[in-house]
């Protein structure tokens, strides 16, 4: 932001300088050329007037020679000619003028100015007192070194002023940008920390423009309210966990004691009640798990997804074997994801549990993990079970949306909440040949070890 503000201000100042200083410099340069030529014409006319006194009035040529000598000492080259073209006075180095130009000047009534290499050449006719005839010609060549020095000095001054203006503008723009961007940078870092789970983070609200201070104060108020809400949710979950689990456990124990002393018919009824209590316990645990997933604030870390898959496969392999289900995993290459510690294990556990519940003996479940572009990782759990209808898929990620008898309908809801908190997504699709495929995508983390082609199979 600082760089953009500085560049924008400098571009604006540069545009203003270009629109003002450049035309001013060009106009002043043209005026310098015009004034320099006018000075040369004035000097040549003065010499022509002095030559007229010699050629027309017959006065002494000494004043003319003195004037020509002074001009020669000043650096000018001067020659005075009569009507026949004879030189009547000249500096030691007279100007080189072609015969055609001299012939043209003898018939001219006004001085003529020519630009030659490194000098301004003026040909001024010597007119008589009545301004009716030419008595001769004066040629004056004045070097342009002095004129070029003036022009160079002018542009140097313009460049110096422009540079100083740009430097001052850069300092002012940098100070302004820092004044604005520092509190915004602080607010951005605070927002990142809050998003990563640091609920106690606050932004400095005592610097910068009033609008930025107001924004920081609003952010701090929002962060404080979020912290209070989440702490309240956590306290409520702890209270619910304690208040519900304890009486449910006590009720189950009492039913078990009653079943020991009951007849067969009563024992069957009590067993059904115990099953409902078990289902209620699972439902309470699932709701608490969903609440925890929705209120997770743990900071994401780099996790080796392939290592997590290996560990979950090892944990679930005995259960799959007991049910006669084949459980395999193909990890094409080691991949890393960004997720809170322990959340990927929860996601895979819920997906594997759902898959095993939906399959019977002889079924199969396969896991794959691949890189999906430069910044995403795709993990899929593929089974060949009965699958889901379109309506079941539509509500699968909602609470209590289940197509399995006896299920709570919270497993996929937990998966969805955990993935959402990590910036991931989940999708359901039909497996080729029958079954259900659950595909999840997560933000990728830089891999520490690259080993393409490595395959893990369990």
Order of helices and strands: HHEEHEEEHHHEHEEHEEHHEE
Q: At CATH's second level, what is the architecture of the largest domain?
A: 2-Layer Sandwich
Rough shape?
A: rod-shaped
| Unreliable sequence segments | 447-458
The structural class is alpha+beta
Number of strands: 12
Primary descriptors:
Beta-Lactamase; Helix Hairpins; 17% strand; five-stranded mixed sheet; alpha+beta; 12 strands; Heat Shock Protein 90; 458 residues; disordered C terminus; single chain
Characterize the structure shown.
By secondary structure, the protein is α+β, with helices and mostly antiparallel strands. It has 3 domains: 149 residues, Beta-Lactamase (2-Layer Sandwich), CATH 3.30.450.20; 85 residues, Helix Hairpins (Orthogonal Bundle); 143 residues, Heat Shock Protein 90. Helix content is 56%, strand content 17%. Helix 1 packs antiparallel against helix 2, helix 7 runs parallel beside helix 8 and helix 8 packs antiparallel against helix 10. The two termini are 52 Å apart. 26% of the residues are buried.
